[in-house]
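Final report, Chapter 2: Outcomes

The project's central promise was a pipeline that accepts a single protein chain and returns its three-dimensional structure in a standardized token representation, suitable for archiving and comparison. That pipeline is now operational. To close this chapter, we reproduce one record exactly as it appears in the project archive, with the input sequence first and the structure output second.
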Amino acid sequence: MPLILIIFGIIFVIAGWRNTELEVFDIFKTVLLGNKNTISYLQWAFALFIVAAFGYIKEIRPIVIALIVVLFIAMIDNKNNKGVDILTQIDKYFANIKKE
């Protein structure tokens, strides 16, 4: 947990230094809350939580593990209506930073 907070701190310090903190907040808002065309990652996290909660039942644990793997694959491959997944959006963002 402290490592994640350090990473977020570094991201926000660099964004503040470059005067792009509003863009970073917009990206985090879009990733966490989604927009009209995408499912938000908070909804994916809630789905993972619900499926993982059933993992405490020992008889269905292998099925739950398989469902968690499927959810992770679907979350990574999640595409909006324009056919652009989150990894492509992140690549475009960092490419725009390099141009500046």
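Archive annotation: The CA atoms of residues 73 and 100 lie 33 Å apart.
This record, like all others produced under the grant, will remain available to the consortium after the project formally closes.
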